[in-house]
Amino acid sequence: MSSENAIKNPHELLERLNELHPSDIAYSLKKIEKESEDDFYYVLKEIPDEILGEVILELPDNLREDVYTLLPSQRLSDVVYELDSDDATDIIQEIEEVDEEKAKEVFEGLEEEDKHEINWLKRYHEDEAGSYMQTELFSANINETISDSIKRLKEGKESDELENIHQVYIVNNEKKLIASILLEDLIIFDFEKTYEQIINEHEENRFKPFVVHDKDHIDEVAKQVEKYDLNVVPVVGYQGILVGRITSDDILDVIEENATEQMYQLAGVNDDFEHEDNLLNTAKKRALWLFLNLGTAILASLVIGMFDKTIEAFVALAILMPIVASMGGNAGTQTLAVTVRQLALGEIDFDNSKDAIKKEVFISLANGFIFAIIIGIIAWFWFNTALLGLVIALSMIINLFSAGFFGASIPLVLKKMDIDPAIGSTVLLTTVTDIVGFFSFLMLAKLILL
Amino acid sequence: MSSENAIKNPHELLERLNELHPSDIAYSLKKIEKESEDDFYYVLKEIPDEILGEVILELPDNLREDVYTLLPSQRLSDVVYELDSDDATDIIQEIEEVDEEKAKEVFEGLEEEDKHEINWLKRYHEDEAGSYMQTELFSANINETISDSIKRLKEGKESDELENIHQVYIVNNEKKLIASILLEDLIIFDFEKTYEQIINEHEENRFKPFVVHDKDHIDEVAKQVEKYDLNVVPVVGYQGILVGRITSDDILDVIEENATEQMYQLAGVNDDFEHEDNLLNTAKKRALWLFLNLGTAILASLVIGMFDKTIEAFVALAILMPIVASMGGNAGTQTLAVTVRQLALGEIDFDNSKDAIKKEVFISLANGFIFAIIIGIIAWFWFNTALLGLVIALSMIINLFSAGFFGASIPLVLKKMDIDPAIGSTVLLTTVTDIVGFFSFLMLAKLILL
Questions:
Q1: For residue range B177-205, what is the model confidence (pLDDT) as tens digits?
Q2: CB-based contact (8 Å) between A243 and chain B?
Q3: Contacts B318 to A, Cβ<8 Å
Q4: Contact between residue B118 and residue B144 where contact means Cβ atoms under 8 Å apart
Q5: Where is it located (chains A, B) (predicted)?
Q6: For position B2, what pLDDT does the model report?
Q7: Which residues from A are below 8 Å from B351, CB to CB?
C-alpha cells in the first residue's frame, strides 16, 4: 500500500484511476493543485462522474470549494447523482454555502427521487443522527421470501445503489422495523422461506435490532456504537418507521472529530474556524480566548499589586513567585485533562464524582508535599533565607491542593450545568491557580518574612 | 435503550442476563461491586461461562484483577475457552500480571488448539497488528464450491466459533490470501460454482483484498481503516499467508485510545498509569512531568533574577511581567494543539510544514499586535507611564511571535527526530514563552525605562 506516494503527473493519475481508492486520488489531486491549478482542473474534468463524488468527499475544505466553483452545475448534478443520499445532501449543502444559485441549479438537475430524499435529509440538524444516515439500505417485508429479497439486493447492487450491506432489515406493512438479520445468518437459511417463518423458528430476541432514533444526538449514537461494537445501526423515525442507517465509517469520523474538538477546546481553539482561507478569521477566533486569558492575567497582576510594598522590600519574591503559579497551572492541567477525558469516555459520572475529586486531590497534594520540600530547599539556599524556603513550600502545598481540587471540580460543575466541560475550563482553572499561587505566596511572605 | 440504568439487584441482573449486552452487564456489576463485594462475587459465580468472558472484557482494570483473583483457575479456563483468540490471549496475559502461577493453570486447562493459538498470538508486540487480530475467520480454498464453504460457515456459527462475518477470504493451496468476497456479493452468486470460477468471471481487481501485515504498527492499520472506510481487514504473515483479521470495533478502540493518549501527553499525563489502584504510582508518574516543569520555572526565575535591580527600581515590572509570559504560553498552546493534532491526522506533513509554520506565525503575530495595543494602553494608564506601555506592548509582540513560531516548529522538529510530537512539546514550548516573555519585557524595561 504505497498510499503515501502521490501521483503528481495528471496523465498518470488518470490512467491509474481504477486501481486507486478515492482517498488516494484525492491525496494526489491535492499535490497536483499545489503545483498547477490548470492540471488540477484538467484532472477534475476527466475523472468519471461515479468516481469524482467520492474523491470530492476526501478533499480538504478549501479544494472542495474550488471544485464547486470550477465545475458547471450540470456536471455537479451528474456527480451528486452517483452518491449515497447522506453524501449527496452534504455536497448540496456545501455548494449552498459557496453559491446558493448554483446549488439550486445542481439540485434541479437531479432525479425526483433524489430531490425528495435530499430535501428530507436537509431538515435534520447537523447534530442529529438523521443527518448522518443514508437512506440506501437493504430491507424486506416480513411476508417476503428470502429469495425474492435477494433478487432485489442483486438489482440494487448492479445499479450501484446498494453497497456496504451487512444485514437485511425486516419491516412490517407499516414500514416499522421489526427485525435485523445479518447476512452471515441469512446465507445459511432456506431461501424459499419467508422472513416471518424464519423469525418464528428462532428464539424471541434473536433478531431484535439495536435501533437509534433520527432525532438522537450523533454523539450518543457514537457512544452506543462503541459500547456495543456495532458495524451499522438502523435509524427509525416517527412510530418506529425505518428511515435509514448509519455506517461505522461515519461513526469513526464522529469519534475522531470529537476528540479533535476536545483537544482544541482545552487549548482554547475553535475547530470550526481552523480551516478558514482567511487567516484573520482564525486569528479573530483565537483572540477571543486570549482576551479571556488577558483578563485572568490582569486579575493575577492586581493580586500582585496588592503586595507592591512587600516586593519592594524583598525582590526575591518577584523572582520566585512565577514558580508557584506555574507549578499550580501544570498540576491543574494534568487533573483537568484526565477529568475532562474520563467524563467524555463515561469513566467518571455523577455517581462517582466525589471519588474522582478525592483521587485528584490526593495525587496533587502528594506532589504538593514533594515539590514543597524541593523548592523550599532551593529557595532557602538560593537567597540564604530559611524563612523564604518555608514561605514558598507552604504556598506550593496550598496551590497544588487547589489545582487538584479545582482541576477536578470545574469540569464536573460545568457538566452539571450542561456546559461542555472542555470549553472554558482551562481559563477558569488558570485563574484559580494564578490567583491562589500569587496570593498565598505573597501573603505568607508578608506575614512571615516582614 | 436504558443502558445508563444499572441493575443493582443481583438476582434481577441474573434473571435479565439474556436481554442485556455484556457491556450493560459489566456496568451493572460495577455498581453492584461498589455496594457489596459479596453480591459482586455471587453474580460472578452465577453468570454462565459464555457470557462472563465478554463481560470481563468490559469491566474496568481494577475489577478485572479482582475477577482473576476471586475465580478458581478451572472456571477461568472455561470462560477463556468461550472467547475469540485475541480476547483469550489478552485475558491470559492480564492474569499473568496478577498471578503467573494461576495464569499457567488457566492456560493448561484449555484445549490444545486454543493453547497453540494463544502461544502464537502472545509473540506479537502490543503495538503490532498481530496482537489485535483474531484467528477466527471464514476462509475457503479457491477450488471449493460456495455451497461447501457455506456449510462450514453454518457449522462455525452453530458452534459459536464464527461471528461478525462480513466476507469470505479465498486462499490458495499454500494458504496465501488471494481474494476477499463480501457476503453481499456471495449471496447473489450461484452456490454451485467454485470460487475460482467466480473470480475468473469478474474483472481483475474486483475481489482484490486490502491487506495489512501482522508486523505492521497498529496505528498505521487504524489510519488505513479510517482512510479507506473498512469494516474488517485481513492480516497476512510471512509470504502473504492469511493469519487473521482485525475488526472495526478494535480499530475504534485504538483510535479512541490514541486520542486520549495525545490529549494526556499534551497535558503531561501518562495514560498507562492513570488507572493504578495505588494512587501514589499515578502521582509519581505525574511528578516526573512536574519536575521537568519545575526546572523550566527555575530557569525563568534565573532570567528574572538577572534584572533584580531593575525590578527594585520599578516594582510595576513585577506586577506586569506575568501577563506577557501567560499570554505567550496561551497563544503557544493554541498553536501547539493545532499542529500536534493536524500532524496526527495527516493534515500537516513535511511537504507543507513551512506553510504550517508561516500560517501559525501570521495568526500569532496578528494577535500579538492587537494585544500589544490593548495591554499597552492598560499599562500606560494603570501606572501613568507611557513608556511602560511601550515596553509591555513591544514584548507582547515579541513573545506572541515566538509562541507561534515555536508552537508550530517544536512538534515538527520532534516528529522529524522520530519523537512523538505530543510528548514533551508543551514543556519545551512554555520554557520558550516564559524565558522570551520575561527576558524581553525586563530587558526592554531596563533599556527604555531606566
A1: 999 999 999 999 999 999 999 999 998 88
A2: no
A3: 304, 308, 311, 315, 317-318, 321
A4: no
A5: Cell membrane; Membrane
A6: 40
A7: 31
Q: Which three cell numbers stand for residue A254?
A: 464522529
Report the complex ipTM. 0.85
CB-count exposure of residue B195 (10 Å: 0-12, 13-18, 19+):
buried
Residue whose grid cell is 447522506? A86
For an interface test with A, give the residue of B58, B62, B260 to mutate (most A CBs within 10 A).
Answer: B260
**Rounded to an integer, what is the distance from CA A205 to the centroid of its chain?**
34
Does the CB of B31 have a partner CB in chain A at under 8 Å? yes
The grid cell for A115 is: 430531490
Q: Please report the domains of chain B, with CATH numbers, ordered by start residue.
A: 10-127 (1.25.60.10), 139-257 (3.10.580.10), 271-449 (1.10.357.20)
pLDDT interval class at A46 (50, 70, 90): very high
Write out pLDDT tens, residues B333-372: 999 999 999 998 888 888 889 999 999 999 999 999 999 9
Residue pair B363/B415 in contact by the 8 Å Cβ criterion:
no
Cell, residue A51:
468516481
Angle between helices B85-98 and B112-121 (to 10 degrees): 80
CA terminus-to-terminus distance, chain B: 71
Chain B contact probe: residue of A28, A341, A373, A432 with most B CBs at under 10 A: A341
* pLDDT digit string, tens, across residues B238-279: 999 999 999 988 998 899 899 999 999 999 998 888 887 789
Tell me the residues of chain B between 73 and 132 that have a Cβ less than 8 Å away from chain A.
none
Chain B residue nearest residue A230, CA to CA: B249
